[in-house]
Design goal:
Elements (H helix, E strand, L loop, with lengths): L1 E6 L3 E6 L3 E7 L2 E4 L5 E4 L1 H4 L9 E4 L2 E2 L2 E2 L2 H16 L7 E6 L5 H13 L4 E6 H8 L10 E6 L4 E7 L2 E8 L3 H16 L1 E2 L2 H11 L10 E8 L5 E7 H25 L2 H10 L1 E4 L8 H9 L3 E3 L6 H11 L1 H6 L5 E2 H12 L1
Parallel strand pairs: 1-9, 9-10, 11-17, 17-18
Antiparallel strand pairs: 1-2, 2-3, 4-5, 4-6, 7-8, 10-19, 11-12, 12-13, 14-15, 15-16
Length: about 350
């Protein structure tokens, strides 16, 4: 059995060869404060965010695309591997996606976690490569192509040619940063405190990368910053845009920075091919047009952008030659043991 895990900051996508995407879970866990025991994982915990009692602590084990709590990630991988495999005796092959900026030490740690959590062998894949494959890009072309994967914790931008990544950069401005910006804006401009879930709804329903005409508004409940009493107010799409615009410019600058590093011939190719957007953040209204205005390049949003990485893992399962071309290799328990022995010498 082959399992793909898109280990995102806000959500985890699970892919099984022959079945496709079999689950989408929130990247969050609830632990008992007194003992530290993991009580629940995934979607059942999501609605507890901001509402949990003192006896429960809500943990987000991924921060800005980086693992902040390895024990929770281990518990998550173990939970999902067992859930998918059931009582099968054979251990699965597990593909795990990580941001392109992950260090070698972090990669080794993630591989160790996956093997310890029940994988027979594990392989780490750079998110931009999986995203490009899932978006339908033909990476066998000699022409340069650019993909920007805008997730919850990171925006990964990469240039491809002949099936491999030539340039890759990662920035910590993505979906979570946009929600934090909305929270700060409402506290500063409206004297209202709102939680992460409310900020996320504002972003999804009326968030925009360019001013909407006509303007939209939604009712929001929060807490007065001054009196600490519950309040209800209307938040407009213009306010959401004003809150997020500086971060959106940072995403545009990240893409422009990669284009500036791209060799002239490939830059010419990208001028013809344009930019492909993937990831949940690519769905923000007006983002493709904003990036087109910022770069001068045609920009398209991939079909089902939030699922591109998971679908890309499925393609890699069927095309092992792409793994070899990008120097991806499976690691087993014996390989991890050898690595540990060499590191301790």
């Amino acid at each position: 059995m082959q399992i793909g895990i898109d280990l995102g900051t806000t959500s985890i996508l699970l892919y099984v060869k022959g079945k496709g995407i079999v689950g989408r879970e929130a990247s969050v866990a609830a632990i008992e404060t007194a003992t530290g025991d993991v009580l629940a994982i995934g979607n059942e915990v999501y609605q507890m965010v901001g509402r949990n009692p003192d006896s429960l602590e809500i943990i987000h084990p991924m921060r800005d695309g980086v693992i902040s709590d390895f024990s929770i990630i281990y518990a998550m991988i173990e939970h999902y591997v067992k859930k998918i495999c059931g009582k099968r005796l054979l251990k699965p092959s597990v593909f795990i996606c990580t941001p392109a900026s992950v260090t070698e030490l972090e990669r080794s740690a993630i591989l160790e976690l996956a093997i310890a959590a029940g994988a027979g062998r594990a392989c780490l894949v750079d998110e931009p490569l999986a995203a490009a494959l899932g978006a339908g890009m033909d990476l066998s072309l000699t022409a340069g192509q650019l993909v920007a994967d805008i997730g919850g914790g990171t925006t990964d931008v990469a240039v491809f040619t002949m099936g491999s990544i030539t340039i890759a950069r990662s920035g910590k401005v993505a979906g979570n940063a946009l929600e934090d910006a909305i929270t700060r804006y409402l506290r500063r401009e409206r004297n209202v405190l709102v939680g992460r879930l409310t900020a996320e709804e504002i972003k999804k329903q009326i968030g925009c990368a360019q001013l909407r005409h006509p303007e939209l508004g939604i009712p929001v409940r929060g807490q007065s910053y001054i009196s600490r009493m519950p309040v209800k107010l209307e938040v407009t799409s213009t306010e959401a845009y004003l809150a997020m615009r500086e971060h959106l410019r940072e995403i545009a600058e990240l893409i422009r920075g990669v284009l500036e590093e791209t060799p002239p011939e490939m830059a010419g190719d990208i001028f013809e091919q344009g930019i492909t957007l993937t990831g949940g953040g690519a769905q923000l209204q007006g983002l493709s047009q904003m990036l087109k205005d910022a770069t001068g390049l045609e920009t398209r949003v991939a079909p089902n952008p939030a699922f591109c990485v998971a679908h890309g893992l499925g393609i890699l399962m069927d095309k092992p030659e792409l793994l070899r071309e990008n120097n991806y290799a499976f690691r087993t328990d014996d390989d991890i043991g050898e690595f540990e022995r060499n590191r301790n010498l």
